[in-house]
């Protein structure tokens, strides 16, 4: 895990993120330069030539990172510890700005040509689940944990309905039905805590979900459950995972990359 300072998790987790870099001017776009795309519907999220040098340091953690991930597909980034994988996820989620390069959304027509100028990837479209997310639970019951980042004026009927709808959808998609909403999150099993952490993000309706080591610290049963859950979520949204657990995740993976020391990313298909 990275050690550089980020805003308190209670804020980060609810995606009240820092502002994103400005997009390149539309006429600077060229398909030849395309580096990193994630599609959503007919939209593509694209980033290219990302470099990142932490403030006050002399060496780039990430160097010209580029890749493309089609919509509703599952991308996996693996590689040596300390190579910069977590840092890349944080950039994609908008928690910190790249030193150079850009991440944005692009729409393409069926023949592969861009249909409109690219727009910056808004952090509101991205949900991030950190490694060991349960360490950052902030509420003392499941309902408050999931709805923490939703509008607070619960007396408003429309807001109440919105919260109820989103809550039900999030709970259903992670299989938390049957868990009392007044239960303390810390009393859940390891696997259910992970489900809850996913629900916290899903309630915000992200289009891209990024997860850092989603299986870490779980027993075999909970790991299998999370893999199954991710497989289902892939039908609804695009998923990008950083993990060392290649064997268990391989059946889900559509595209994979290896991050090498020096922050260099290259596409590496996994053996079937
Ligand atoms: N602001 C910073 N200043 C100095 N070094 C940093 C900063 N941010 C991250 N690092 C270092 O950069 C390296 C990359 O960290 P990162 O957590 O992204 O790697 P990782 O590939 O995810 O590692 P792991 O697989 O162990 O989680 C680490 O050695 C980390 O300590």
UniProtKB/TrEMBL annotation:
The ABC transporter domain, residue ranges: 45-272
Domain of life: Eukaryota
UniProt name for this protein: ABC transporter, AAA+ ATPase domain, P-loop containing nucleoside triphosphate hydrolase
Signal peptide: none
BP GO terms, sorted: chloroplast organization; multicellular organismal-level iron ion homeostasis
Organism the protein comes from: Helianthus annuus
GO CC annotations, alphabetized: chloroplast envelope; chloroplast inner membrane
Annotated Pfam families: ABC_tran
GO molecular function: ATP binding; ATP hydrolysis activity; ATPase-coupled transmembrane transporter activity
Gene that this sequence comes from: ATNAP14
InterPro entries, alphabetized: AAA+_ATPase, ABC_transporter-like_ATP-bd, ABC_transpr_CbiO/EcfA_su, ECF_ABC_transporter_ATP-bd, P-loop_NTPase
Keywords: ATP-binding, Hydrolase, Nucleotide-binding, Transport
